[in-house]
């Protein structure tokens, strides 16, 4: 399973919203099965884990389809069946890399509280081409463990 990143953004016109024509053609994800309307965000279950793939480059504000889908998806998680909840996204919400500071901030502000209230266990993210891991993080309070 995959989620889109900044290298998959295609713009047919300079002022147009991001299109993901090649990504959507090559990477058909099971988004309909999770109630999503977009291949860019979806969820699935495997080995006692509910995995949520969020679209960093899809609309994420509180009035967006992705936000509404996430609220509904989190509400139907059965922790008896899937005790672990993992979220995967591309643009990091927290990092110490000065070249990429704040790139995921808008999404973090819009969605972090939803994940916190749902008691998400683990968030994986990418984008920065360097290894870094964070300790317990909640609502901008982070124990940073820097590894190089």
In short:
The protein has three helices and six strands. The chain is of the alpha/beta class.
Structure in words:
The protein has 148 residues and is of the alpha/beta class. Helix content is 20%, strand content 21%. The chain has 3 helices and 6 strands. The strands form 2 sheets. Strands 1-2-3-4 form a 4-stranded mixed beta sheet, with no helix packed on it. Strands 5-6 form a two-stranded antiparallel sheet. Helix 2 packs parallel to helix 3. It is globular. The model has no long low-confidence stretch (mean pLDDT 84).
Low-confidence stretches: none
Structural class: alpha/beta
Tally the beta strands. Answer: 6
Give the helix level as a range of percent: 10-25%
- Summed over residues and divided by their number, the pLDDT gives a mean of 84
Task: Spell out the blueprint of helices and strands.
Elements lengths: L20 H6 L15 E5 L2 E5 L11 H11 L8 E6 L15 H13 L4 E4 L7 E6 L2 E5 L3
Parallel strand pairs: 2-3, 3-4
Antiparallel strand pairs: 1-2, 5-6
Helix pairs in contact: 2-3
């Amino acid at each position: 399973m995959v989620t889109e990143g900044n290298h998959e953004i295609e713009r047919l016109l300079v002022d147009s919203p991001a299109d993901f024509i090649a990504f959507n053609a090559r990477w058909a994800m099971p988004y309909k099965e999770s109630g999503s309307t977009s291949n860019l965000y979806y969820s699935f279950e495997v080995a006692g884990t509910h995995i949520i793939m969020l679209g960093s480059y899809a609309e994420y504000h509180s009035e967006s389809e992705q936000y509404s889908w996430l609220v509904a998806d989190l509400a139907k998680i059965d922790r008896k069946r899937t005790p672990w909840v993992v979220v995967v996204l591309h643009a990091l919400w927290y990092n110490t890399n000065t070249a990429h500071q704040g790139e995921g901030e808008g999404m973090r502000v819009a969605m972090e509280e939803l994940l916190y209230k749902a008691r998400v266990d683990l968030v994986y993210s990418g984008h920065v081409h360097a290894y870094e891991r964070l300790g317990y993080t909640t609502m901008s309070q982070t124990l940073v463990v820097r590894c190089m």
